[in-house]
Write a structure and sequence with these properties.
single chain, 32% helix, 587 residues, seven-stranded mixed β-sheet, disordered C terminus, alpha+beta
Length: 587
């Protein structure tokens, strides 16, 4: 899904840079606030309508099943709340959700897998949240900003699942907005002339930033000022381990951690691929041999995506197919990409180990230079505000892979017929490296400074994963009308990893530091892969998605005034120099 709030308020839009600096501060606490003096007529202008229409058009690719909007006026401002919906369940529940008695409005992009520890079955999670929010805010008549935002936080904290939202509270003329504490759904802030925009995809690159997932913000409109107030999330990512599971057992025993990890990952996957959270296609006797999956995996053939695929196979409804998307960028001269062998090899291993014997489709998505050039403007908009070379490399791979349009792979590894996936859910391995020590630097830190230093590094990487990865990934994947889900970033999985001792994640000796990854790193995940019947994938070294393996394709990507050369091969050179007298980067 996609959401947006477009505010017509000249002085507020002019202060967008100041607002961006406020929301990005890392020292915000409960009650931190910013007050901006404003003035304006509140009339609906042609620009407001144009920006709103543009945002609905942009969001419609994320939510192709329907869109809607509502516009209201308050204290010199015109505010439009927009939503484009990708139906998972209950297609009759459209957005925005509006209370005709109070004029409260909710736009919601996310999934509530559990609320207050209970599974959400047979009802709209958007409507459930709307009723919880309105009930919490109507409890008492106190309209102080801090108390109101604290009440709303109490309605959000029981959610298990990814989300971004905006809620208009008519009684207090207040707009609430924010993301889940991990930041799995994108939410940006930008401005355009007299328009101030909060949206899943940035409306422009002007004064644009991602709204941090550190808490919830409220924006209260009064005749002369707009006051922005902050409240931190009650769920947070901790720096140090807390209570250990099953503390009466021997915590140095690998089997204890293996059982705990299998249980928590199975629980996470079961929620994310259940028939209650995925619109699976109907399977009949006539199409059982050529099924399209309701769930897909972004699949490299490495250990993270292989474990996700194997777990999904065990947790999905038995009659449904599973699609694996693997992307390849064509080499000059049309030579076949050599890294495809890894994906094919791991796919065959997953199929052989499958206890369900379901149909598991491997789909190769081949991309050439001309295709990237045709999509570069779209990619640039989706990447904003993250526009580095690495962001483009990763975003490009995610964008094309998640389209799910390519060729099926035959059992002998050859290209089969053309295929277009019907999956609406795409599983991604984000968070595995940041929690289990998947980067080479983690091994070196452990050897040189010890486990406490690595623990601090992993905590830092988890706290910044929203700005380094998740917002960009959500925008690039969702643009294909599919919803990204992150089994490794489930709330209970994150809590589990906070308790895991370092020796269960990483082990290294002086001799192992310079060995290829695959030895001593991501121990828990590799042991899980072995348990799932994937011994070969469990030994595969890490391959960064932004480079792939043996990719030697050179593309040029227009970004603002610069031409950025995007190099898809980490094996030759990663050094960048700027040509004298030219706005051009060359590898």
């Amino acid at each position: 899904c996609g959401i947006a709030v477009v505010v017509e308020q000249v002085t507020l839009a002019a202060a967008a840079s100041e607002i961006a600096k406020f929301v990005e501060r890392d020292d915000l606490v409960l009650g931190s606030s910013l007050s901006i003096a404003v003035s304006g007529s509140g009339e609906v202008t042609s620009e407001h309508k144009a920006v709103s229409d543009h945002m609905l058009d942009v969001l419609s690719r994320r939510g192709p099943d329907g869109n809607g909007s509502t516009t209201l006026k308050t204290n010199g401002a015109t505010i439009s709340l927009l939503a484009a919906t990708l139906f998972m369940q209950n297609p009759s529940h459209a957005q925005p959700v509006i209370d005709n008695h109070t004029n409260d409005v909710l736009v919601f992009n996310g999934e509530i897998f559990e609320y207050q520890g209970m599974h959400i079955e047979g009802q709209s999670d958007t409507n459930l949240l709307f009723h919880q929010i309105t009930a919490s805010l109507s409890n008492g008549q106190n309209t102080q900003h801090i108390l109101q935002i604290s009440k709303l936080m109490s309605a959000l904290s029981p959610i298990r699942g990814p989300f971004a939202f905006a809620f208009w509270h008519s009684l207090t003329n207040t707009l609430f907005f924010g993301r889940d504490f991990v930041g799995r759904r994108s939410l940006t802030l930008s401005s355009s002339n007299s328009q101030f925009v909060i949206s899943s995809v940035a409306s422009s690159s002007t004064n644009c930033c991602e709204i941090p997932p550190t808490g919830i913000f409220s924006m209260t409109f009064s005749p002369a000022t707009v006051s922005i107030t902050f409240a931190p999330h009650q769920n947070i990512i901790h720096n140090t381990p807390t209570a250990l599971p099953n503390s009466n057992e021997n915590m140095s025993d690998e089997s204890v951690w293996d059982r705990e990890f299998l249980a928590v990952m199975t629980d996470s996957m079961s929620l994310q691929v259940s028939s209650q959270s995925v619109p699976y296609p109907n399977v009949t006797e006539t199409n059982v041999e050529n099924q399209c999956g309701g769930v897909a995996v972004l699949f490299s053939g490495g250990i993270d995506s292989s474990v996700i695929a194997a777990l999904a196979d065990r947790c999905m409804p038995p009659s449904q197919a599973l699609d694996l998307f693997t992307v390849h960028f064509e080499l000059p001269g049309g030579a076949p990409p050599r890294d495809r062998a890894l994906a094919v090899r791991s796919w065959k291993e997953i199929v052989a180990a499958s206890p369900t014997h379901r149909q598991i489709n491997l789909i190769t998505v081949d991309v050439d230079e001309q295709t990237i050039h045709r999509q570069k403007q779209r990619l640039q908009q989706l990447l904003t505000p993250t526009t580095t070379v690495m962001d483009f490399n990763i975003g490009c791979a995610l964008y094309f892979a998640s389209r799910g349009v390519g060729r099926l792979v035959c059992q002998d590894g050859s290209a089969g017929p053309e295929y277009r996936s019907s999956a609406r859910v795409v599983l991604i391995g984000s968070g595995a490296d940041e929690q289990c020590g998947g980067y080479k630097r983690h091994m070196r830190l452990l050897h040189e400074f010890g486990p406490e230093r690595v623990q601090r590094e992993l905590a830092m990487e988890m706290k910044r994963i929203w700005t380094r990865n998740l917002g960009r990934d959500d925008r690039c994947v969702s643009d294909s009308g599919r919803e990204p889900r992150h089994p490794f970033l489930d709330e209970k999985v994150i809590k589990f990893f906070e308790n895991v001792p370092m020796e269960q994640r990483l082990r290294t000796t002086a001799a192992e530091v310079d060995e290829p990854s695959g030895v001593g790193d991501k121990i828990l995940i590799r042991r899980l892969g072995q348990y799932l019947g994937l011994p070969e994938a469990s030994r595969e070294p890490k391959v960064a998605i932004q480079f792939g393996r043996y990719k030697i394709t050179l593309f040029r990507f227009s970004c603002s005034a610069d031409w950025i050369c995007v190099y898809m091969n980490s094996l030759i050179s990663k050094h960048v120099r700027k040509c004298k007298g030219e706005d051009q980067y060359v590898f």
